[in-house]
Structures
1.
Amino acid sequence: MIILKLGGSVITDKNSLTAKLDFDNLNRIAVEISNYLKSYDSKLIIIHGAGSFGHPPAKKYKIGEKFNLSNYQKKRIGFSQTQLAVKTLNSQVLNVLIKNNIPAVSIQTSSILTTNNKRIDSFNIDLVNKYLDEGYVPVLYGDVAIDKSLKMAVVSGDQIITYLGKYLNPDKIILASDVDGVYNKNPKTNSDAKLFKCLSSLKDLEQFDSTTNIDVTGGMIGKIRELLELSKEGVDSFVINANTKNNIFNILNDDEVNGTLITNKCNK
Amino acid sequence: MIILKLGGSVITDKNSLTAKLDFDNLNRIAVEISNYLKSYDSKLIIIHGAGSFGHPPAKKYKIGEKFNLSNYQKKRIGFSQTQLAVKTLNSQVLNVLIKNNIPAVSIQTSSILTTNNKRIDSFNIDLVNKYLDEGYVPVLYGDVAIDKSLKMAVVSGDQIITYLGKYLNPDKIILASDVDGVYNKNPKTNSDAKLFKCLSSLKDLEQFDSTTNIDVTGGMIGKIRELLELSKEGVDSFVINANTKNNIFNILNDDEVNGTLITNKCNK
């Protein structure tokens, strides 16, 4: 079984002022997934980010920040609006997948998951397994969640990956982003940025340019730390560029792709 | 706590050839719900039908009928399409509710429920309760489901009501339909149709005109049978006409409304 994460930056138009799907990119990716599934009877879970749909309302209503309970009603409306926004993206993603003959089934993350202080606290994945067993491609996504300490929080697609990676023991995890992999600096603004071909320990992370870590990676280090933890249990992850044609098909198909492998055993 | 069912005929345009929301009707109903919630701090669950969104794909792909497993892939696509169609309706409903300041949270039924031979087999309602406790209005809906014997089935809003009525012990159940209540004949085609003011036993059902039962009621008798079972446990149900202005507000508000009461104790 493979877990494929489609980053929000890959499937939505970040330059648009309003929530907008990057239809062309998503459709091309859907064709690649469909071609892979046609040839191989493999199980696949897709997780997508919230992109330009979820971030604006989550930011506007400060979902995940502490608040005074006298403002709870207003916050609830913000929660509802954010849930609806990411659900709208999810419907658009499902529409493209299904049109490409992928038997994709939406699993609304906020219907099966709660968090505690922004971390997944309970996650009922019974139906994720059932849909997989029946040959569907379950599609989960970054969503809002009821939070035990903060009342409400945002749960990222990345957290979902790590959780499913731990409990479903996939053959591999693919993180489809809009850059070629994990760099020591932001490759979009630093021409000397170095791509890591393979990461196998927290020590590798020391090569990150500490001054640019935060804006470069948007929490990339935390993500890699979690994927390194997973790699200790034998689950390898690949960070690849989904904007490069055939990358998704090739990585699904076990062909070589330029990118970063996160594993327990780099060949150095 | 109150459970309100909005029939598909109330919130979608049945005369439209394509899936179409009855925006005006839904918006008026949302205003009435919002006005009620403003005045009373009551818990509310909304369940809506699939109407002109769900029935065409479910019918096209014969969801819920036995099929040859060699056709499973085609059926899966039908399942996916039907799920997406009802989810689209659900998003449109949520949009109207939230715009009217109702803290509505969608709960995707097919993410938490399975059936066996078209009847609910498992239903994880933990999060329904959690959202209720946090002051949200959970919104569930008629959806597709994985079925233990038939592989896939349709689960109606009515089945969801009966299940939640049994396990959540609501103060009352409201079925908002497009007629004034339960009649012995189809009131739209029979000028002499008689409205039942109160139903308290299966014996009352003998007054139904047996020749017109099926097309009249679309399974109304089965539904009433289940609601009668619930009434034995003290949960009363009201069938009312949601197309009549203020009916929803009045029934939520415990004011008298023309309709059919299904209860253990009719005053005869």
2.
Amino acid sequence: MNGQKKIVLSESQIPAQWYNIMAEMPNKPMSILHPGTKQALKPEDLYPIFAEELARQELNQTDMWIDIPEEVREKYKIYRPSPLVRATGLEKALDTPAHIYFKNESVSPVGSHKLNSALAQAYYCKKEGLTNITTETGAGQWGTAMSFAAKVFGLELAVYMVKISYEQKPYRRSLMQTWGAQVVASPSMSTKAGRKILTDHPTYQGSLGTAISEAIELAMQTPDCKYTLGSVLNHVSLHQTVIGLEAEKQMEIAGEYPDIVIGCFGGGSNFSGISFPFMRHNINDGRKTRFIAAEPASCPKLTRGVFQYDFGDEAGYTPLLPMFTLGHNFAPAHIHAGGLRYHGAGTIVSQLMKDGIMEAVDIQQLDSFEAGVLFARTEGIVPAPESSHAIAAAVNEALKAKEEGVQKTILFNLSGHGLVDMTAYDQYFAGDLTNYVLSDGDIAKNVSVLEKII
Amino acid sequence: MNGQKKIVLSESQIPAQWYNIMAEMPNKPMSILHPGTKQALKPEDLYPIFAEELARQELNQTDMWIDIPEEVREKYKIYRPSPLVRATGLEKALDTPAHIYFKNESVSPVGSHKLNSALAQAYYCKKEGLTNITTETGAGQWGTAMSFAAKVFGLELAVYMVKISYEQKPYRRSLMQTWGAQVVASPSMSTKAGRKILTDHPTYQGSLGTAISEAIELAMQTPDCKYTLGSVLNHVSLHQTVIGLEAEKQMEIAGEYPDIVIGCFGGGSNFSGISFPFMRHNINDGRKTRFIAAEPASCPKLTRGVFQYDFGDEAGYTPLLPMFTLGHNFAPAHIHAGGLRYHGAGTIVSQLMKDGIMEAVDIQQLDSFEAGVLFARTEGIVPAPESSHAIAAAVNEALKAKEEGVQKTILFNLSGHGLVDMTAYDQYFAGDLTNYVLSDGDIAKNVSVLEKII
């Protein structure tokens, strides 16, 4: 390391290709099924909703490397390559023999890794001749990323933002508007789906499921308009592999290789991004790196859910996905890591989990904030509440290494900063936050809905 | 450029020394005077308030280069060197032949350039054996920087935050608390100065002047405690020269030299930081670079103030400084660029202005936001309202170059991002912001107070 704190690559070292782990998986993900016919989906079935190239990427299980379009790489240069940082301050505070590194995705102008896929998606939509796109956003990370990406490629964007977030996270709404997006609180009167819910439940505070329904409906009814999504799907994970591909080169410069790779886990986009490029060396080269998905204890699909076909949305409109899930009707507690409140895991991660290629831990809300504050005070960056779950898992592993007296190399993904999440920190310091414990009975009850699906 | 968007230096290229322009100025700044005796101050006179090394730096007019302590350089590595970015998106939107570069100081974990001096000040305080420090903050940029710097060097910090900001900018307050500082709304009951004002005016919303008085009083009455300040003073400008020293190397890599260097202007810290290292080539090597301080039209000390001895604070407690000023009793409008609401300019900048080595422009509030939004939509980064003044000045120069059909190279300092200033953008989009026009009579009336001073 020669005393280096950050390992920085040049722009020419931005990856030229994304890594498609599906081509190398010992067991491929099971097919995505049409919800009506229960037949395996073909790319064409997805063309009405997604840009055609994205639909093809979604189901591509053969091409290991997919070229990143030059126009997208050009825009990546705005913030990529992101630094790999040795967390020397954190190591010292923990007095651990472990070497802790983090990939700093918070340097993106939108403050998170989400822009890696947003730029790709906006590019393919533009290239297909579209003029408009739609999306939904819960906590707001994806919506902000898509807002800037749409502007950069000259597309008009409508974002359906879950109403409770629209009201509680005004800064994220303002950011989207600053980048030029139309932001609508969901449920809204602008779609049939929204009007129906508002008629039945005038005070409904919204959900990701409803926002997805509204965004898809608007896309279907608007000429030259398609829908975009920021997590869970295979093409999103694909785009996020730039994180791990860069980190691989940077770890090599550091002269180390990770024993443990950690990402927080919502739908899987940032965990996949940091993990898959390293996982390929477990699959191919006999490496024994551990991959840990850090999910919130309040939404533990990987640690306590079941592997089953389930819908991607609450209302049950989407194709059926083979996934670890708590049931699409699962209503997670209102934790501050809004980006991790999703009932299922993407199909690739679910298969990898089933095959024992990766593992998962659940993190309590208070532990995530304790780790986040320690990180802020030692490394400077105030982490997003989502990212603090990865930090907490890294801290646990570093303390274990100390206890065992072994030098481990730990790499985690800092998916974003928390500068627009400060109300969450206020509530933590005020003692207003709690942990959430789910009983086995609660989980079994939710999961029981899956029996009727397939 | 070879298509490079960002020019990035390695950590070993972080400057080893700060540049002290006072050693090379054709006319040195006039003496700072004791307010009682009207005698020139010596460093010892400042020891009771400031760390001794900082007091010596403040009055050092002879040493051109001052070593940056290794411990400070080590902490600079958390975010430095900061990137120099070619604003290709902005250039394209303006359709200008000008090459526009910006130094991106928003990458600091606290979101602005203020950390460059905060780390240095915290280090010298710690080295002197202090355990506690105090400071004040208006908009909150300096307070957040000092909070992290104090934590990093193991000092306890008390921040007096102007009450109206404390209430209107809760995110900045939260950030300071997250980094472990004690934040007190000023005026407060914790000091004699605060109690007096609260007794006389129970609903007083606070001012920077009052907060300074409170912070100094607490420092004087606490053992092993001194006071720190984030702008105006010579030692602050000195520390900020890391910005321009890095930019100089980066422009060389880009194969260009700036025709114009621009910084927004409050007390002078970021303008000095980006300008002084380039200014030395005007002074010594016959370069003809123009240096433009971009100040708000609502607080135009450089463009419409007078050069006179004046107090640094509203109450008239500080030493007398030879400065361009609007009078220490000047009450600027409540523009959103809170960091630029200061009545005077630092003594070095004031002398340089007097000698015609630099110039200044005033920017209207609405023009600053228009430029800031254009920048966000083309370069991704949402700028701090303060920095948007520099962007507006750069846009004006780029459009002038287009009109004249000449290729100019423009460099400006992006002093910080605006992610915790989104309420300002909301108000801009809602049409709730206005311009401010000061009449000559208003200015003359304020300035008349100076006649009695010396």
